[in-house]
Amino acid sequence: MTRTGLVVANLFRRRTRTILTLLSVIMAFLLFGLLQSINSIFSAGEDFVGATRLVTQARVSFTQPLPLSMLPKLEAIPGVARVAYSQWFGGVWQDHTPVFAFAVDPLRQRDVYPEFTMPAAQWQAFAATRTGMIAGRALADKYGWKIGQKVPLASNIYPQKNGSKAWVFDLVGIYDGTTEDTRKQAISAYINHDYFDEANAFGKGRVNFFILRLADASRAAAIARTIDAMFENSPDETKTQTEKQFNLSFVKQIGDIGLIVRWILFAVFFTLLLVVGNTMAQSVRERIPELAVLKTLGFSDGAVLGFVLAEALTLCLCGGLIGLALATFAGAAVERGSGGQFALRPDLAVWLLGLAAILLMSLAVGLLPALRARRLKIVDALAGR
Regarding beta strands 132-136 and 166-177, do their DSSP bridges make them parallel or antiparallel, or are they unpaired? Predict the structure, then answer.
C-alpha cells in the first residue's frame, strides 16, 4: 500500500464519522464563500469606470432631503445629459407588505431610464394624471394590478394634509424591461411627484436624491467630484456615487455588514475547529497501537507526524474545495436571479483566502494529534499505556 492509500484508508476506517465531518467542512466553506463575497461587495470602493448614471444624495444620509432648487445647477454641469429626481415614498400594500414606491417626474424618469419601456400613451397619462401611478410588470403581476385600477397604498413616512397615511393612486401604466435582466428589476412603483409634493403634510420642494444620466461614461468620476465640490460647505452638502453603490447603500442601513459577516464566519469556523479537531483526536487515539507498529517497521517520528497532518489536510482540502465550488455555483444563481445587482460569485481573491483558511485549519486541527503520534513510545503504545 502506498503512503497516499494509507492516509485515505485511515480517514475512512470510520466512514460515517468521516462523511459527517466532511459535510460539516463543506457547509462551512459554502457559507465562507458566499459571506466573503458579500463582504467584498460592501467593502469595495466606488467603481466609476463605465458608469452611465450617478446618484446625488445628502452627504449624511439619503434620508436627509435635498432642495429641488439644485436641479438647474446639476443640469448645467458639462457632461450631464439629463437629470431626474426621486423621493422615497415608503409604500405599504394591504397587510404591512412593503412596496418600493418613489415619487418622480414622469418624463425625466423616462429619459434617465431608457431600459424600462412603456407605451407612449401610458407615459403621457402618467404625466397628465395628478394621482397617476405606474408599476413594474413583475410587481403588477405579483399583486394582480390592472391598468385603470385604483391602488390604495399607505405610507409609513408621509401623511397627507388631513393627517391620513392612506393614499389612493390611479394605475395608468405598467412598464417592463427591454432585457431579461431589466425585466427582473421591474419591481418598483412610481407616483407623480407634483401631486405628492402638493398633498403631503411636510417637506415641500425637496427630494431624497437626484439621478444623473451622463453623456460620456468615462467622465463619471470627474463629474461626481464636480458636484460634491459645488455644494461643499453649503447647508446641503452632497455625496455623489455610482448607481450600483447607491443601491448597496440601502442594504447597509441595517448595520455594519462587514462586521456581521466576520462574526458569523468566526462562529462557523470556531465550531468547525471543534468538530474536525475532535474527529482527528479520536482517530489518532483509536490507532495508537497501529502507529506504534508503523514505528516498529521503521517509519520515523517525522513520517508518523506527516501521516496525521496529511489526514487533516486531505479532510479539510476536500471539504473546503467542494464547499467553495458550491458557493461559486450558488453565487452565480443569485447573480442571475437578482439581474446582476448582487454579484455573489466568489472571485479569485475569495478562493485564495479560502485556500489559506484550509491550510490554517488543517494545521490547527492536525498539529496536536500529530505531535502526540510523534512523541509516542513503542513500548508504552503496545502495552496499552
Answer: parallel
pLDDT of residue 239: 93
- Comparing CA positions, the residue from 176, 341, 366 lying closest to residue 250 is 341
Write out the three cell numbers for 348: 479569485
CB 362 within 8 A of CB 276: no
Output the CA angle 304-309-314, nearest 5 degrees.
125
Determine which of 66-70, 73-77, 90-94, 373-377 has the lowest per-residue pLDDT on average. Answer: 373-377
Q: CA 299 to CA 284: how far, in whole Å?
A: 16
CB under 8 Å, gap of 24 or more: what pairs does 326-334 form? 326/26, 326/30, 326/33, 327/29, 327/30, 327/31, 327/32, 327/33, 327/34, 327/37, 328/33, 330/30, 330/34, 331/33, 331/34, 331/37
The cell 446582476 sits on which residue?
Answer: 340
Assign 50 to helix, strand or coil: coil
Q: What is the 3-state secondary structure (H, E, C) of 23-70?
A: HHHHHHHHHHHHHHHHHHHHHCCCCCCCCCEEEEEECCCCCCCEEHHH
Going by the DSSP 8-state scheme, the letter that residue 100 receives in this structure is: -
Query: For position 73, what pLDDT does the model report?
Result: 95
